[in-house]
Structures are given as C-alpha cells and as structure tokens.
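Module 6 notes. Inverse folding takes a fixed backbone as the condition and produces residue identities as the prediction. Think of it as a translation problem where the source language is geometry and the target language is the twenty amino acids. Below is one complete input and output pair. Work through it position by position during the lab.
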C-alpha cells in the first residue's frame, strides 16, 4: 500500500494527540485513505521531555529543517502555535512543495489569508481545522458542507476556559477571582489566563470563522473583544432571575446588501432557551446560519489532546486523499467579498444594566427619562428595595446604538439619586 509521509512540528498537547490517533487508528485510517499515513519525523524543542505517547526516539529532531526538507515527507503538521517562527516554517514548507496542516489560531487569524494565497498559487493543500473549537469540525462544515449557502451569521462559545469559569460561577454563586484560582489549580486555566479571560483566544477564532464564512479577510485587531473579568456573581444571579445565563459569545454577522459585517466577542445574556445557553463547562458550540440551510449548530470539545488531535488527523486524512487522487489545492477559498467592518458605534444591541439608587419617589422615572433622552427604549425594568434605603434597578433595553446606550449610562451615573452603575452587558436575542 502507498505510504504518505507525515512530519510533525511540535509534540505538545496537540502533537501528542495527533501522534496517538495516527498510531492507534493506523489501520482504520489506511483503509479510509487507501494509503498508510506514516509519521517520519517530529521536530521538538526538548528531546529529553517525557511524552505521553510512545514514539520511537529516532523520529525526534530539534532541527525543524529535518522535517521541512525531508523528501519522504508529503504533509507537515505545524502544531507549535504563535506567529513566530511558525509562519516562517509554513512558508518554508510551501516553498519545499509540502502540503500543510496547522492548528494555529493566532497565525490563521493574523496571516491566514496570505498563507491560503500561497497554498492556492502552488496548488498545495493548507488545512486548519484544529485552529478553531478543537475537535468540532466547523471549518470543514463551513468551507465545504455548507458551501452552497451565503453564511449570514456565526455565533459561538469558542473558549472552553471562560465557559468553564462562567458555568462554575453560575453553579456555585462564586466570584470570578475564586473560580479562576480554582480552575488554575485544577489545570483548566493557564497560570497566565489573559489569552482566555480577556478574549484574545476567542477573537482569533471568530476572526477565522468570519473570514471563511464571509469570504472576506477579517482584520482580527478590529474585532471588538471584551473578556469576562467584570462579570460578577450578582450579575449571574440577576440574569438567572430574568431566565437568562451569561456566556462569552463570539458573533459575526454580515449584511451583504450593505457591504458590511460586524465581528465581536463579549459576555452576553442569553435567554435560557437559546441554543447556546445550555452549553456548559469546557464545551464549545458554534451556530451557523446559512441562507439555504437555516440554523445549524455544532457542539463538542473545544480543546484537549485527542479532540484537537482528531481535527488535525482529519485534515491529514483529507490531504492524503487529495494526494492519492492527485487533487491537492482543490478547495478554493476565495476572499473577494470585501465586506467593510461596521464600526461599533453603528452596531445595535440590546443591553442589560444594573445600578443602585436611593429608594425615593420618582427615582425610576428620572432614570428612565435619561434613557429616553438618548433615544434608548426600555424593554423591561426590575426594581427591588434592598436593605440600605437603596433599590437595585435592572433595565433591559430594546435594540439601540451602543453610543446612545453608553451616553445614557454616563448621564444616569451622575444623577444625584443614583448610587452606582455596577455593570452593563449586551443581551443577545
Ligand atoms: N485555551 C482555549 C480554550 C483552548 O480555553 O478554549 C485552545 O484554543
């Protein structure tokens, strides 16, 4: 049977899951491809590190060039992450006419378009399923299975760490700081949690999905990204009273008739019946709306060795099949829609705002007048006296411009009767 040579760059969490699946399911994979996928070299930083997967020692090298220039390697899987030096390695792999698979979200979000161009010009395959939502096959679904559709919107929970934290805060009524510390101790959150809790990771992922879905390169730095540090146990409890949950959502919408799109990541209240509301713990899910198919939803593990390895090996299989049939470079990913990113001031959302005010006559009307002055219409109000001659007021607005909403909040905060505006959060319908 024909052999297809695989080279891995990186053998950490994703690399070892990839190697384990290639080894454990070798016969099954060979029968599905009509060729054996054989790992020939693995480049790592540290040869002495103990790996969770048993791989013959002679496959390892610390020289990436041993992988890129090996004539017996057909496909290179870059599983290191980050832009430098991964980008240069992938460019070198293309120059050596290798097919490439990656799980690198930062690289795909920042340079995916340019790398896809190089691959297409050279009729090479370049697959990146593992870069978004781990084991969930969302890129293949959007790029191939749903290719008949205009993708109108994508909305997802694409960061497991923050979903784990928010789910635990909701279950235990605990604070963000306490749950983060616990998650770090259990290894669910990184020692430096910035990429996850400040939503950079989710921003990269939604930028990739929006570029694929909308056929427009999305500048990830123009994607609004707000993390979850400001979410309190009180917000989660109030949201629950209103039949909502709070999730970190990544949203991309397009309005093709106007030539615009909007891409953002932020915490949001979701009604408990929203399909994403019941996605809990470290799980991810992505909703895709196409003009033919309507709403579809994909759910699964968004991280981890074997789930992400499953995505990487799925890509290696797809590329191997193309090699067997002589059809590499077959998936065309045009990026010619040229949609403009709508500035945040022009995006309309519903908002939740939680404040406290003195418990006196006419307080509610003063507050609601301020919102009315900014043309912000209020959908619902809950006011409860607490025990300090104070009332907690929670407003949910109708859809309005963010600029108007924030203007109203600024003025409301300065009303003498208002003792504090504690938080505001978007509400997704
Ligand atoms: N850190 C990510 C998460 C997984 O928590 O979902 C890798 O993208």
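Target side of the pair, the amino acids:
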């Amino acid at each position: 049977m024909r052999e297809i040579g695989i080279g891995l760059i990186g053998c950490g969490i994703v690399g070892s899951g990839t190697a384990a699946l290639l080894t454990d399911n070798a016969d099954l994979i060979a029968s599905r491809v009509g060729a054996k996928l054989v790992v020939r070299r693995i480049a790592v930083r540290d040869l002495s590190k103990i790996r969770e997967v048993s791989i013959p020692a002679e496959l390892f090298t610390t020289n990436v060039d041993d992988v890129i220039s090996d004539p017996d390697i057909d496909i290179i899987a870059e599983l290191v992450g980050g832009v430098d030096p991964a980008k240069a390695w992938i460019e070198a792999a293309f120059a050596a006419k290798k097919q490439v698979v990656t799980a690198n979200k930062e690289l795909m979000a920042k340079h995916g378009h340019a790398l896809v161009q190089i691959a297409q010009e050279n009729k090479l395959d370049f697959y990146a399923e593992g870069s978004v939502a781990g084991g969930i096959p969302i890129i293949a679904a959007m790029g191939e299975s749903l290719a008949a559709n205009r993708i109108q919107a994508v909305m997802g929970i694409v960061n497991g760490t923050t979903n784990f934290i928010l789910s635990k805060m909701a279950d235990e009524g605990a604070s963000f700081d306490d749950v983060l510390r616990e998650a770090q101790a259990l290894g669910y959150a990184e020692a430096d949690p910035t990429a996850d809790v400040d939503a950079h990771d989710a921003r990269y992922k939604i930028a990739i999905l929006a570029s694929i879905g909308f056929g427009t390169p999305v500048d990830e730095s123009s994607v609004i990204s707000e993390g979850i540090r400001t979410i309190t146990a009180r917000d989660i409890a109030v949201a629950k009273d209103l039949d909502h949950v709070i999730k970190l959502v990544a949203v991309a919408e397009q309005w093709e008739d106007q030539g615009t799109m909007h891409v953002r990541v932020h915490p949001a209240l979701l009604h408990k019946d929203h399909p994403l509301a019941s996605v809990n713990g470290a799980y991810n899910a992505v909703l895709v709306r196409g003009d033919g198919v309507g709403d579809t939803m994909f759910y699964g593990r968004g991280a981890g060795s074997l789930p992400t390895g499953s995505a990487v090996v799925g890509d290696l299989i797809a590329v191997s099949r193309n090699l067997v049939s002589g059809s590499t470079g077959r998936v065309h990913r045009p990026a010619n829609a040229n949609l403009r990113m709508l500035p945040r001031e022009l995006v309309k959302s519903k908002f939740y705002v939680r404040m406290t005010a003195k418990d006196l006559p006419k307080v509610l009307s003063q507050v609601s007048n301020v919102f009315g002055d900014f043309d912000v219409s209020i959908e619902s109000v809950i006011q409860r006296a607490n025990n300090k001659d104070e009332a907690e007021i929670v407003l949910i607005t109708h859809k309005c411009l963010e600029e108007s909403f924030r203007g109203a909040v600024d003025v409301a905060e300065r009303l003498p009767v208002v003792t504090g505006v504690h938080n505001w959060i978007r509400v997704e319908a």
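Reference fact for the lab report: The mean pLDDT is 96.
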